[in-house]
Structure formats: structure tokens, C-alpha cells
Design a protein that fits this description.
Shape: elongated
CATH class of the largest domain: Mainly Beta
Number of domains: 2
Structural class: mainly beta
Helix content: under 10%
Number of helices: 1
Order of helices and strands: EEEEEEEEEHEEEEEEEEEEE
Radius of gyration: 23 Å
Strand content: over 45%
Length: 253
């Protein structure tokens, strides 16, 4: 959030909205913090800093006469971490002024082949399985994020399905408001493949046989394979929406 100007650059203790009550806090040492892109187009950046904030404290960043309130502040027994959402121009100023490397995203899906298929037969009142196959035809290994969007809904909300019968879209019988869940990762070496399955009947329950049109979507997240997570590698991600449309005959039991 941009707010009133301040007479000097640095990091300050401030109110949560940065609208007042701010005071000089801490200087940034060269190379201190992490600055990385959070979208594929490198149009949004995040600065993470560890700060000696008091409990329930907030922070703001002053650069070039602009005051930017932290978007989040997290605290544990040892450290307080503040994150600031920056534009490309703001990120370049911070990177240059404080010698913090500006880390951009680069494509990770070169050579990735994608295919949705219905596992037939589908029968009225039964399961309606769809399998997503990913094949790494690129030259480098890539890590695929699995799970993380299932808790409380009984389905994998990385998928989304819209089912149309006789020209009418069937209502979604589930919920998009999942509570997250554990994530795992599967590493695809060049030439390897991965299959991910889900049941379309968790989204729609057709009432009659016939041809269904199924619009399939999957929220793909890729990363560079690493042993464990470090914020130093937070930019090594790539997000892509996979989608296609299938026609599947629903048969009588």
C-alpha cells in the first residue's frame, strides 16, 4: 500500500496502514533480505526481511519518497519476517539501492506435453474418472506440485470440471472453498511421465445417459527440484492453467 512520503529511505516501525505513527527503525544492510518475482510475467515482486519488530508490531518501507506498508508480518520465537509487495519499478530501486539480487521467474514448462483423457466406460450413477498425463520432453528435470487443495471438500481442487448435458451446464455439487491440505512433489526427469486422476462425479451428477461435454482445468505448479525449501529459491516456480474439453458418452449401468 502506498501512503505518505517520508524524509529518508529505510525500514520503519509504523501503523498497519502506514498512514501515521511511523518512526525511523532499521537501516538495510547491503544484500540483506530476499527479493523475487511472484508471477510468470515478472510484474509483481515480493521483498522479505527479518526485522526486530515487537509483538504485534508492523513495518513499512520507504523508497524514493514513497511509503509502502508490509503486506504481511509473521512472528515466531526467534524472528519476525515482514513481506512487501512491490511493482517492477519499486523492486529495481530496492535491488539497486540495497544490493539485493532481483530474482525473476523463467519458464520451466519447455517441452512439457499435456493430455487429458476420460477413462471409460462411464456409467450413470458411477464414477467418471479423468486422467491427466504429463510428459517431460524437455532437457531438465522439473518438480510437479501435488495436493494442497483438498481438505474439507473431498476432492482435488487443483482440478475443476464443468459438465454440460443436452446444452445445459450441470451445477457444481461440491465447493471451491477448500481448506488447503498437505502438498507433495513429484520430480519428472527428461522422458518421464506422471498421471494424475480425479473423479468428475465429485463435481456433477448427470441424471440421464447420453453424451456429456466436460470442460477440464488443472492448476499446474512447477518448480526446480531441490532438497528442501529455501526462500532463496522462491522464484524458481512456474504456474500454468491446463485446460481442454472432452466429449464422453455416459452409458446405462
Amino acid at each position: 500500500m502506498l501512503s505518505t512520503a517520508h524524509a529518508g529511505d529505510g525500514v520503519f516501525a509504523c501503523s498497519r496502514t502506514a498512514s501515521g505513527g511511523h518512526q525511523r527503525g532499521w537501516g538495510l544492510a547491503p544484500g540483506e533480505g530476499w527479493l523475487f518475482s511472484v508471477d510468470n510475467d515478472n510484474q509483481r515482486y515480493r521483498l522479505l526481511l527479518e526485522l526486530p519488530l515487537p509483538p504485534n508490531g508492523w513495518a513499512c518501507l520507504s523508497i524514493g519518497g514513497r511509503l509502502i506498508a508490509a503486506s504481511t508480518v509473521g512472528q515466531d520465537l526467534l524472528t519476525t519476517t515482514a513481506s512487501f509487495d512491490l511493482s517492477p519499478a519499486e523492486a529495481r530501486i530496492v535491488s539497486s539501492r540495497y544490493d539485493i539480487p532481483l530474482r525473476d521467474r523463467v519458464r520451466l514448462d519447455e517441452g512439457l506435453q499435456v493430455r487429458f483423457e476420460a477413462e471409460t466406460p462411464w456409467q450413470l450413477g458411477g464414477a467418471m474418472p479423468v486422467v491427466l498425463t504429463l510428459v517431460n520432453q524437455g532437457s531438465a528435470p522439473v518438480s510437479v506440485t501435488l495436493g494442497g487443495r483438498y481438505q474439507g471438500v473431498g476432492r482435488d481442487n487443483r482440478f475443476s470440471f464443468t459438465v454440460t448435458a443436452d446444452g445445459t451446464s450441470l451445477p457444481d455439487i461440491g465447493s471451491d472453498l477448500d481448506l488447503g491440505g498437505l502438498s507433495t512433489w513429484s520430480v519428472l526427469a527428461p522422458g518421464e511421465s506422471l498421471q494424475i486422476r480425479e473423479d468428475v462425479s465429485r463435481w456433477a451428477t448427470p441424471s440421464a445417459t447420453g453424451v456429456l461435454v466436460v470442460d477440464c482445468v488443472f492448476a499446474l505448479e512447477l518448480s526446480v527440484p531441490r532438497d528442501g525449501f529455501s526462500v532463496a529459491y522462491a522464484h524458481e516456480r512456474w504456474e500454468r492453467t491446463l485446460q481442454t474439453s472432452l466429449e464422453v458418452e455416459l452409458q446405462a449401468p
